[in-house]
Specification:
This protein has a single domain, classed as NCX, central ion-binding region (A middle domain of Talin 1, Up-down Bundle), CATH 1.20.1420.30. Helices cover 79% and strands 1% of the residues. It contains eleven helices and two strands, in the order αααααβααααβαα. α3 runs parallel beside α9, α6 packs antiparallel against α9 and α8 packs antiparallel against α9.
Length: 313
């Protein structure tokens, strides 16, 4: 029964996030915001809502291992799975934006801060506030960046029938789905972990993080297939920033999150390695199938290690 509840809960998370993303995108287009900014902020924050809701719910339920593993696992999946698929299925990727110069270093900074903050074994209130401020700083950077202004070819969304009442109603429905789905996903996942003698960390870093990464996967792949490469890659970069700053930050504000380097060194190292690979790819503009394959290799190593090390909690 817990498996059924978990699947339905993840479905509610994804549907709710889709509602929020679609309506947020309509608002952004209505106010003439650029394609990349839509991907890196509006859509990235929207697709990170499942991670945020799941981690905050886990923190409220005093399950910090699920809360932090979800953020780390989502970062890994976003780069090694979502970005890899984008590179593999898309021909002649020529983004308009210089991601290395403008954005990917921003993705590394919160990872470094997370590593430093974790040295004492806990992400506390001050750490959480600093992480959240960092995300706000990136959004301010995008607003002030001249390259982020003006609408590119933003897609097939029509704004001539823009109605605030309908949009707000759909946003509220989306938030209800996300919050409710997060609560039941955490409860069912915890029960599954207990039934099978699997640690909550493994449940968080595989099952929940993969499920909460599905919105990024669906939206980024869809955008890439439509030729919206800037939006697709921007979604991945923005989502990872949100995971490391807002998801961990808000979960830690609810309840400080203990972090064990010794117990989870491979997963933390994999997240760091994936982020470094992202920077290397953007620095050398290696938007190609070989780059996608190399990211999938890292994902395979991560999954293989996780499966081999599954042990009772």
């Amino acid at each position: 029964m817990d498996f059924v509840i978990f699947i339905l809960s993840m479905g509610a998370l994804i549907i709710g996030a889709d509602f929020i993303v679609n309506q947020s995108e309509r608002i952004a287009l209505h106010f003439n915001v650029s394609e990349f900014v839509i991907g890196a902020t509006i859509i990235a924050l929207g697709t990170s809502l499942p991670e945020m809701a799941a981690s905050v719910a886990a923190s409220l339920d005093h399950k910090p291992q699920i809360a932090i593993a979800n953020a780390i696992g989502s970062n890994i999946f976003n780069i090694t799975l979502v970005l890899a698929i984008i590179f593999i299925i898309t021909k002649n990727i020529n983004p308009n934006r210089d991601f290395f110069k403008k954005d990917t270093t921003w993705a590394l900074v919160p990872v470094i801060l997370f590593l430093l903050m974790s040295i004492d074994g806990v992400i506390g209130t001050l750490d959480a506030v600093l992480l959240i401020i960092l995300m706000l700083a990136y959004m301010l950077f995008l607003i002030e960046d001249p390259m982020s202004l003006g609408v590119d070819e933003v897609g097939e969304i029509k704004t001539d029938d823009f109605q605030w009442g309908t949009i707000i109603a759909l946003l509220l429905v989306g938030f209800v789905f996300v919050v409710g789905g997060a609560h039941f996903a955490i409860e069912s996942a915890s029960n599954i972990a207990l039934d099978f003698g699997i640690s909550e960390w493994v449940i968080g870093i595989i099952m929940i993080s993969f499920g909460t990464s599905l919105p990024e996967l669906v939206i980024s792949v869809s955008a890439a297939l439509k030729g919206k490469v800037d939006m697709a890659i921007g979604n991945v970069i923005g989502s990872n920033l949100a995971n490391t700053t807002l998801v961990i930050g808000f979960a830690a504000l609810v309840d400080p999150l203990p972090v064990s380097f010794t117990d989870n060194v491979f997963d933390i190292a994999t997240m760091t390695a994936a982020t470094v690979m992202l920077i290397y790819i953007t620095a050398n503009k290696l938007y190609s199938k070989p780059a996608g394959i190399s990211l999938l290799i890292l994902l395979t190593l991560f999954l293989d290690h996780t499966i081999k090390t599954m042990s009772p909690a």
